[in-house]
């Protein structure tokens, strides 16, 4: 049963919902991990919809940037008062969810507070530091951000220029931005809202640079909100999207903070200027790993937003004819439309499934690290580096296809897809530019192959064990596991090809860095294939674990769309393995899978259970009553407040008058 059916809905959409073969609440439970979690999302949406002061004052596309920031702040403040009665305050998921529900995806002054400011205090601060700041931050007595990137440096953290020099005599660190390129640039909420920040600066003790470390830094006076002396701070200006957030710049001039403001759970500076190393050199980067580990699920949901809009709209949009010339068909019936949208539905499910898995892996790693075991850090760094890169890229592609699938109306801000696209593709850049992160994973793949070459295959972790296999024939009595083998073949041969290229260049006398650079396109290809293999195998495992048979059946259908599409998409890498007859077979299986999934397409996107409030799309409305609401939306555009604008009276009219003969 599809739980979205209501009286007064567009009959085309109701027809789609009636053709679904499964219960959308049960599917939501599988998507979000449990019936309880899915149920909590519905309860929160429902509760929020009944609170008038949390509703949008006008559609976001009609707001200026200043209005967006004001609206985000207004709602954040109301939420802070109401949160205790609405959500479990200890749940990060519920906190994120309610903010997205109420404020949306365009960012807001507290967007970074929960995800990048509080976690480093909680994981890298000592017990005393947590006692001092955590409660204040959680109550939102202070608003924080995360200032790492600089005007001249982002990807390469080793080149950061901001310094924190220890002054033994005063027991203080002195922060400085020695050059224009050392200004912090980009941190969200820094521009106008935050009064505190985690600042990443090079720790200098006794003239020795110990590299980037995190510091708690007060930026603005807690009473007046004016920048404190020694601080230069402001907003960096409008962005491609995400304009509800005030990304900012920040400079320091001999700005002093107490020694106790360096986050010292792992690295320490003692009062006499001694430096105690962390248990793992990159432990200070763990805040980034945390955010990356959450990005697959987050991005999967961005894709889910765009697909909810495009699939629902495709079910009410009629254009052209198939056999029956008496009525135009739903565009969702065209194979091209299905090919454009259904593999993306499968990807959205796959990203969310493997996203929740990486969140679980991170949480486990955190426990291990707190217990002094850092051995899992390299694996998770490699995995999340690849995953954030592949998922953000494919999400961007999927959202853009969703926009095009909506024809002209997809281009209107009424669809809201352009905003979803703009926000989502920010993910290709933030938390590590995609190419840079793919190359981090490639280091791990190359090292794994070198282990095989050195006869140490048995030391390989489970995620890279396939690199040592030797599959050269596939029995195409195709089930998911055979597809997995095809993908393993592709990922393995590309990883070996890239590694051998790198090694050959090295053996020719080239420096390690030059050889790496000249092999880097091949290396990034290897990283993508490895990651896509991981996504596919997680999807297969997840579907295998589903108990409800009706849900399992439709997820198997979706998995078939995924595996056939993915293998067709990497055809060039499997030419040595699959014959052209086998490729034809897979292609036909894909077409059959598209037909099989067709009756469930609307129910599959309904199962994401994204409310109208959160979706903010006229095209994607749950009730499917698009045309009358598009007309209402257009009429409410501020340009239509007057019939004759100043642009006409001041310029166009005089121009036309002058042009009259
Ligand atoms: C109120 C609630 C609201 C909540 C809102 C949520 C809303 C959700 C919707 C969100 C929508 C929009 C939000 C937008 C938010 C945007 C926030 C963005 C923030 C940022 O971008 S912060 C800045 C991020 N910056 C980066 O990521 C920089 C990338 N660069 C690096 O990480 C590093 O420089 C590097 C890893 C590329 C290289 O580091 P380097 O020190 O030079 O090391 P290498 O020499 O390359 O490698 C040496 C070895 O170290 C290993 N290594 C590297 N990193 C790690 C690690 N993290 N862990 C373990 N090991 C690591 C590396 O593998 C090498 O190992 P090897 O020698 O090969 O064995
Ligand atoms: C929406 C948004 C929000 C952000 N929020 C924050 C925040 O809250 N806090 C914060 O500190 N930062 C934030 N950032 C900054 C972000 O983390 C950086 O922009 C990001 O890490 C990329 O760094 P960069 O801008 O220096 O890119 P660059 O490194 O200059 O990238 C430019 C090009 O160079 C290539 N390149 C760079 N190095 C290499 C290499 N070694 N090998 C091959 N190619 C390379 C890249 O692939 C890319 O094509 C945000 C950015 C955005 C877009």
Overall shape = globular
**Overall mean confidence score, pLDDT:** 96
Helix content: 40-55%
User: How much beta, percentage-wise?
Assistant: 5-15%
How many helical stretches? 22
Low-confidence stretches: none
User: What is the CATH T-level topology of the domain at 282-455 and 481-620?
Assistant: Butyryl-CoA Dehydrogenase, subunit A, domain 3
Bound molecules: ligand LAWDYWNQ, flavin-adenine dinucleotide
The secondary-structure class comes to alpha+beta
CATH class designation of the domain at 282-455 and 481-620:
Mainly Alpha
Number of DSSP E strands: 11
Superfamily (CATH H level) name of the domain at 282-455 and 481-620? Butyryl-CoA Dehydrogenase, subunit A, domain 3
Under the CATH scheme, the architecture of the domain at 282-455 and 481-620 is Up-down Bundle
Largest sheet properties: 6 strands, mixed
Q: What would you report as the Rg, rounded to the nearest angstrom?
A: 27 Å
Active site: 431 (proton acceptor)
Domain Acyl-CoA oxidase C-terminal: 480-656
Family: Belongs to the acyl-CoA oxidase family.
Pfam family, one: ACOX_C_alpha1
